[in-house]
């Protein structure tokens, strides 16, 4: 059953564009999926290493800007040297955006993981603010507050068979879903490996983990690189789907959204960011049909507080615990004399 259930869930989400005719709701699911992907990357740091990063949106924005500039081209002067870049295919931009965010994850990890607690949070927040200010003030490259419009949509295909440009919401939905599935598999393989077990050991007891030879900096930086790369890729998908970005992409609310998705879904679980992302990505849209803007945010906050208060470990751990108890109880009843035969 544990192997069949994920396949049933995947089959359901694959069928969504076939019966969901409202393009607005499909657009909501695409954006929700992109932020769900970013939340999965944050879960690597917050859930599996125990490090709270409040500047995670910086990797998201870096990926978006790198991919956009790669696809649009630019002409900028740096230290008196004129650098001109001709537009490249968007797929290359996705790769470069993820790589640039991963590199930043490595550099920030080497620096930030030398400190802990509130100091680490301050470093990550400062990094996000610096990237926002660069995007806002380097007008020659980023166009500043005027935004970068006209970002081309993703184009898939190969030279012999031709190319397909992803204009429709349904096509973008399947691309985002594919990235979510691939990322889920990659994170699962990482967590099940010795590297993942070392990360979890550092989360549970850093002093004890260090005493048995686990390098704190090595494994935390590895987690930062993976998290930064995945967040950067999610940013590239956002840029090519929305087709316009500005420095507001670095706003703190986006980081808060990722943290909410991870905490409410269940940090340190593979499915937690997916469940939390689905609930808090779709809930505002559903509430919009019944109440005004002010009441929407009140109910949104109340739902979050209720989940954290009633299920402090998150939704997914609570469901797993309930399922384990139900399975154990059924096994006990089946083992009692006479009851297994009557049932």
TrEMBL record:
<keyword id="KW-1133">Transmembrane helix</keyword>
<protein>
    <submittedName>
        <fullName>Branched-chain amino acid ABC transporter permease</fullName>
    </submittedName>
</protein>
<keyword id="KW-0472">Membrane</keyword>
<feature type="transmembrane region" description="Helical">
    <location>
        <begin position="25"/>
        <end position="46"/>
    </location>
</feature>
<feature type="transmembrane region" description="Helical">
    <location>
        <begin position="270"/>
        <end position="291"/>
    </location>
</feature>
<dbReference type="GO" id="GO:0005886">
    <property type="term" value="C:plasma membrane"/>
</dbReference>
<feature type="transmembrane region" description="Helical">
    <location>
        <begin position="171"/>
        <end position="187"/>
    </location>
</feature>
<feature type="transmembrane region" description="Helical">
    <location>
        <begin position="87"/>
        <end position="108"/>
    </location>
</feature>
<feature type="transmembrane region" description="Helical">
    <location>
        <begin position="297"/>
        <end position="319"/>
    </location>
</feature>
<keyword id="KW-0812">Transmembrane</keyword>
<dbReference type="InterPro" id="IPR001851">
    <property type="entry name" value="ABC_transp_permease"/>
</dbReference>
<feature type="transmembrane region" description="Helical">
    <location>
        <begin position="58"/>
        <end position="81"/>
    </location>
</feature>
<feature type="transmembrane region" description="Helical">
    <location>
        <begin position="238"/>
        <end position="263"/>
    </location>
</feature>
<dbReference type="Pfam" id="PF02653">
    <property type="entry name" value="BPD_transp_2"/>
</dbReference>
<dbReference type="InterPro" id="IPR043428">
    <property type="entry name" value="LivM-like"/>
</dbReference>
<feature type="transmembrane region" description="Helical">
    <location>
        <begin position="207"/>
        <end position="232"/>
    </location>
</feature>
<dbReference type="GO" id="GO:0015658">
    <property type="term" value="F:branched-chain amino acid transmembrane transporter activity"/>
</dbReference>
<keyword id="KW-1003">Cell membrane</keyword>
